[in-house]
Design goal:
The protein contains 11 helices and 9 strands. With 273 residues, the protein is α/β, with parallel strands linked by helices. The chain has 2 domains: 7-204, Vaccinia Virus protein VP39 (Rossmann fold, 3-Layer(aba) Sandwich), CATH 3.40.50.150; 213-272, Orthogonal Bundle (Helicase, Ruva Protein, domain 3). A 7-stranded mixed sheet has the order 4-3-2-5-6-9-7, with helices on both faces. The protein is elongated and about 65 Å long.
Length: 273
Amino acid sequence: MTPLPPLREVIARHGLSATKALGQNFLLDEQLLAKIAAIPGDLTGCDVLEVGPGPGGLTRALLRAGARVTAIEMDRRCLPALAELGESFPEQLRVIEGDATKIDPKTLFAGPYHVLANLPYNVGTALFTGWLGGETWPPLWSSLTLMFQHEVAERIIAAPASSAYGRLAILAGWRSTPKIAMKVHRSAFTPAPKVMSAVVHVTPAEMPQGVSARVLERVTEAAFGQRRKMLRQSLKGMPGALAALDQLGIDSQRRAETLTLAEFVAIARILSA
């Protein structure tokens, strides 16, 4: 294992501190970071995308696991610390200064890659839904291993009729398999956030035939955008949606949170045709 200075020493030497405006909370426990890096399996020789590496805690765990890491960081204060890390792992680390929400990963990799990240809280959900989207499936990414606030993680794996069930569960579950791989106590972070966190692991699954991802996104956006209203109200602005309910025998007086994932997929299939 390549000897590296403690993360706290790196942070102190470079004068780094987590910035609330960037949604930063640093993980410093290297044993915990190694466990997160191990969730996707053996990463030896694999390409990995990391978003928001900060001082490089998870980055060093991934490099030690043998991964080739491409890290996107918009906080230029962290770049010198990441450059030092790159010197310790020649040819394994590429750092890109920029906003991950504006960078298409397909432009960074020629083949399959994994995504592992302690996502900044303020952009985590947007990045996640972006990786899940698109008509091309399976995606170029082989797995997503992402840190979220615990309540967001629960929304990703939620079952119908539960309080957490909504659009995020549909988008995550209709053609991939999400699970909570690890819960992380708030005390593991510096500074400690007000909420608990969890690591979600997602792998691609078979995509249902005849369903447009964009149509499914529009259906769930309309249905859950007014989740307290009956479907006949929330979907009335979408051409063909109410007729699709009739065709499928779905009572239009039901509310969105009572529909199963399969029912949403069936509605989207009819509208896609």
